[in-house]
Write a structure and sequence with these properties.
single chain; 102 residues; alpha+beta; two-stranded antiparallel ribbon; 26% helix
């Protein structure tokens, strides 16, 4: 994100931000670093709307410059090279099904 978020900015992200399609749920936020006016943060959401991370950061005055999704629904990218893919394991499929009530 651009700039260094203040404590108030981080508190707003943690407490939920009002967007044009309604308020977001609270999020976990961790500042990972600041270099040349660009902050790296880790944002953990428990819901997902279209471009939500970008819209949340813009709402607190810090537009996103680059976004990397490292985990989704308990799945992560560990061991995968950029552009690579792998099939899901039986356990991962079962966990996803449980997560949606199947």
């Amino acid at each position: 994100m651009e700039g260094a978020p203040s404590r108030d900015d981080l508190a707003r992200l943690r407490g939920g931000v009002e967007l044009d399609d309604g308020p977001t749920a609270p999020a976990e936020v961790r500042v990972l670093g600041l270099d040349a006016g660009i902050s790296r943060i880790e944002l953990t959401l428990h819901e997902g709307r279209k471009h939500q991370v970008k819209r949340m950061c813009e709402a607190v005055g810090h537009p996103v410059r680059r976004l990397h999704r490292s985990r989704y629904a308990g799945l992560d990218l560990d061991g995968l090279e950029p552009g690579a893919w792998r099939g899901l394991t039986k356990d991962e499929i079962a966990a996803l099904r449980r997560g949606v009530g199947l």
